[in-house]
Amino acid sequence: MAPKSTDKKRKASIQEELSDDELNDLDFDGALSQSEDEFDAVSTDEEDEEEDGDDDASEAEEEDDEALLSDDIPSDEEEVDAAIQKLLKEKIEPGTEPNDKDGDLTAEDARGQNDDDDRPNYRVETDANGNERYVYPEIDAVYDSDDSDKAPENTIGDIPLTFYDQYPHIGYDINGKKIMRPASGDALDALLDSIEVPQGWTGLTDPATGKPLQLSRDELEILKRVQMNEIPVDGYDPYPDTVEWFTSFEEKMPLSAAPEPKRRFLPSKHEQKRVMKLVRAIREGRILPYKPPEEREKEEEEKDEVHFDIWQDEQPRDPHVMHIPAPKLPPPSYDMSYNPPAEYLPTQEEREAWQNLDPEEREKEYVPQKYDSLRKVPGYDMFVKERFERCLDLYLAPRIRKNRLNIDPNSLLPKLPRPEELKPFPTVCQTTFRGHDGRVRSLSIDPSGLWLASGGDDGTVRVWELLTGRQIWSVRLASDEAVNCVRWRPTKGTAILSAAAGEDIFLMIPPVLDPVAEQENRAILDVGFGYATSGQQAPLNVGQTPPAKWARPGTKLEDEGVLIRITVRSTVKVISWHRRGDHFATTSPSGQRSAVAIHTLSKHLTQIPFRKLSGLAQTAHFHPSRPLFFVATQRMIRCYDLQKLELIKVIQPGARWISSFDIHAGGDNLIVGSYDRRLLWHDLDLSTRPYKTMRFHEQAIRAVKYHKGGLPLFVDASDDGSLQVFHGKVVTDLMENPTIVPVKVLKGHKVVSNLGVLDVDWHPKEPWVVSAGADGTCRLWM
Amino acid sequence: MPQIKKKGQAGAAKNYITRTQAVKKLQISLPDFRKLCIWKGIYPREPRNKKKVSKSATASTTFYYTKDIQYLLHEPLLQKFRDQKVLEKKISKALGRGDVSDAARFERNASNPEKTGKPKYTLDHVIRERYPTFIDAVRDLDDCLSMLFLFANLPSTSTVPAKMIARCERLTLEFQHYLILSHSLRKSFLSIKGIYYQANIQGEDVLWLVPYKFNQRVVGDVDFRIMGTFVEFYMTLLGFINYRLYTSIGLKYPPKFDQTKDDQAGELGAFTLEGLNPVAQDDSTKLLTNSRAEHGPDPKVQDAVNKLVQQLKEGETNGDEEAAPAADGEEEEEQATDGIDKFEPAAPGGDILPQPSYSTNDPAQLFSKCTIFLSRETPRQSLEFILRAFGCKRIGWDAVLGEGAFTTNELDPSITHQIVDRPPIQAVVNEDGDGEDNQTSQKLAPNQRVPGRIYVQPQWVWDSVNEEEMQRPDLYAPGAQLPPHLSPFVQMKQGQYDPTVPLEEQETEAEALDADLADGEEGADVKEITDGAEGMDVAESEEDEDENEEDDEDEVDEDEEDVEEGSDAEESAALQRQIELEAELAGKSVKAKDQDPKTKAKLEARKALQKRAKEEAEDLERAKGMLSKKKRKLFEQMQYTNNKKSEEDKKLRAKRRKLEKEAAKGKAQ
Fold first, then answer.
1. Which residues, other chains included, contact A397 with Cβ-Cβ below 8 Å and sequence gap of 6+?
2. pLDDT at residue B156 is higher than 50
3. CB contact, 8 Å: B484 with chain A?
4. Which domain CATH number covers B369?
5. How many structural domains are present in chain B?
6. Would you say residue B333 lies in a domain?
7. What is the pTM of this model?
8. Is residue B323 predicted with pLDDT exceeding 80?
9. Is the confidence metric ipTM above 0.85 for this complex?
10. Do B226 and B144 fall within a single domain?
11. Contacts of residue A694 in chain B, CB cutoff 8 Å?
12. Which of A575, A778, B33, B620 could make an S-S bridge to A487, C-beta 3.0–4.6 Å?
């Protein structure tokens, strides 16, 4: 602190000095002002000291310091001084420097004169290049704040002072002026100093000022305390007693002397509100005078419920659309009476059955009971339980609005024409043909309608007189194979029968005609042999087996009337004749590529029309009038054009497994029977999908047949042992739908090992139908 | 491209909410939710497709409408529930801290309906919401009454506080008072479950069931909390309904209740009805109670006197009003328009409309002329109620049955009818003198009858009420075999079995024929053979017939008519032969020949009937075949229910036939 205080002192003195300068010698040399200042300052300091006397010890120390410093480098000082003088003189041009000073002065003057006239505040000079130069007077900030009287701060920063050892100054002040090294005292002083160590002498030099560092007693004390690790401030008590600024003791005098506010003297509105609330509550009876709790409770209990007319201003409101009122419990019926009519009482068995049932499964929750007088009626033990269940129903049971159809069930039934109107159709079994051993697999009525041919599991083909049921002819075609199919050649006047047993197809002429006609028939069959031998058949490639072999069956069979045997590659199931009687198609489902074969009778020729078939062929038929050929696989029926040899149509009945189908004589309609119990009516013009699906059978449908003689009838045969006769009228008008009416169920065949009726056929003209049963009989229905 | 719809953002998924979700949304406990649902009448719904509705993988079972639950969100009761929950939490916390006094204070604040029988909340607004009009409330009264009558008869337990029972009892009795005063009770039925009553309140039929006065057995798991919730609601509802009903007939509600009378089993008599204005008060009080003042003079004498006075008064008024005959005429006209007119068809050909029957005897006055005494074994409460409701003013009963009787003296000469339900004791019939000596003057010896009085069993009252006229008392005499008691609520449908109609009128043709045949055969057998084995024979012959029929059916296909007739002939011949054989065995002459043509005709008729039925069945089969699958299913369902019903009826008819036959046989013997 000491150096600072000295600085302050010095500054003050400088200022004084400056003012002196301004006042007294206005035209002294500005260039030397600094150094002169310094000197003056020192001198004035000393003067001041002298003036102050002895009261300020520090100043004395300062003096000593100076003396000491001067003592240190006296010669240097002088030299330096001299050098500075010289330098300054060299540097500052005699012209400019004084001018500068003049400027200063003029500025000072200008400030004084500004009030008088409008003189420009600059001077015009010529610079080194000879140009005009405006020189403005230096602005004097006229600091009169504290820092102005501070001793000039050394601004050299963190540089060792030794760098300045050779110079007269020790650094620069804030204005860039040199801070001159304080002058050292003269030798005498130094001597004196050496003799007497002044108070506060440390022997150190203040690096900032370059003066001897003097420390006062207090400062020394502080240093000592710091050294001793004590708190440097004297008299500081680190543990003072707490002063209770805010205490529980009421002070005599208030802390604040502010006068009481006005609001403290006005009635509170808020309070008034609260009070009014209470008053209102009391008036309305919400707040009651205190009563002991027991009394209060008793009173509360006694208080009755308030009743009022809740429907005083009732307004009918339609119930919500989605609201479903709870259904009411049904009213009691007669049997709930305590004394019901005797017929309502359950018999012993009924009562036992009721008791044995699980309570949840019982239709009624009570048993009707009779008591002969009212006093004997006991309490109903399920009363609470039933009420509880009703409660549960009311809030737990989901409610749905169920529309109960309140109509006569008979109104649902379609109006069908009476069967009498649809007559004729077969109704009763007229003849039973017995004779086959085992199942009758197939049957057929000859084109004249007189004879019935049948073939069965026993390997025989039999011909019967249709009306009488008399067997007239029989031949055993195979001993171990069943006759799968029997078909007459459809031309009139001939009686050629085709039958399939195993892989062989036999063509035979039963002795039903007169010998002349029979001879003609033989000729028809035999003409092919000539054709074959004449070699007009297409030559076969080497190694390729022919699709079929046409041959004589052997003398034994020939004697019986069987004339031709055609052996194909696999078991033939279905034979279907072309209407002209020259071609017939056979189908053998297991025959892979050769499943379907078309045979030409007149040429003894067998062709396999399809190179490949998708699916197992089930059956095949010729179109009754056009050169079309229908092949049924398991799911589809494909229609091929025989002339163009292309696929025309694929009919999709939607059945899983087609068993048989038949084409209407008109050629536009088709019925399909399937093993999945469906009978499907197709209209070929309309769609490939069925027009009507009928599912009346409980078992698979084996065979379907249209009546070919102009009657609108068709029939199907099923494994459930029944035939169903339908009236199916096909109209030529395209706009009119065919009417299909079931007319009759013919039952008679017995079901043997899950097989019922295996085949049906219509009489060519009459509404008669024959059926072949698994029970070994054929039946004629008329 | 339209915006892709997210699953569960619209439609059914939004419309329905599961129960768990609903409870979460309302932030209440499940029991509180249940209460709320019960009171607000919110019930689960069955969505068309449960899978579409449930958002979770597991199948939820209960769905509510989201709108319903939203509607619950604004319910003031919800706040009450929450408050209650908070209070409970406070109590449990206080107890946890050990602050017993705090807990007790909270406890006092809590509503404890078990103790007081009254909760802190009221359900008034709920009732107003659920039933916007009075009629709506009356429509929903069935369950309410059944429930309250049950609770009025329950013993008090911890779950069913005594207060609640007392209130139920009061409410039901008040309601009964209204029915008595307004004469709106219509029908009643004694069932094995209890007594059904039907009243007509402002055009709405209300049917409820009252248990017999026995201690109710509680079997199975019955949650009385749920029932209590219902009862709480129903009590409020019936309170308001009673208020409305009472005020509608000019009475003050609640009526004065006499606790002491009630304690002495006064039941209906414990109430004193008051009119809204003091003038009406006298009438009403007189109307109801068996006031002692009425007891004094004989009612018949009183009636006669009253009539005389009335005539006199009328004469006076007539004299006064002769001056203004026009006014009189108007009155008459008005009176004339009051009743229902009979519409007679003026010209033939019009449709006949159903018309309300204008009964001459007012059901409300059915028992008005009777003084009835109830023996101590009869159910007093129900009898008193029903008799009063049908106009009986003077009902006396044994002092054992409680307070409030017109007379407790069985020998009171004014009694016209006495209802007894005890069996006549044949063993000891004391001499009159002995009886007098032994008994006090009031008591009668067993089987002793007061002359000039009609003794009937209780069923007489019910049957009279349902028939709206007094039944013949001799049918209901003590110890007599009572006629069956039939439910008056059954709505007869065409073709349904009706026990009141003779059997011949409702049996089908086939049944009648069968029965006749059986009768005929039996008759013949009875005539011819007196052996014990005849019944067996009959049965055998019937079986034979059945078999033959089956055979017929099999063969019918071959050749229907010829064969059938042939078999018919064969059969009858065989039958005849057998009868002859039996007769020979029994050593009697054959008398069946004269009956032969009759039975033959009947047999033929039956055959024809069977044939027709078969043809019809065939037709039906054909037609059914042409139906689509859906329609066929529907048709079969309908057929199923119809057949089931007709089967039941058939069984009833068969039973009745059998019973009648037995009865006839019993008579014959």
1. B43, B44
2. yes
3. yes
4. 3.40.50.10190
5. 3
6. no
7. 0.58
8. no
9. no
10. yes
11. 625
12. A575
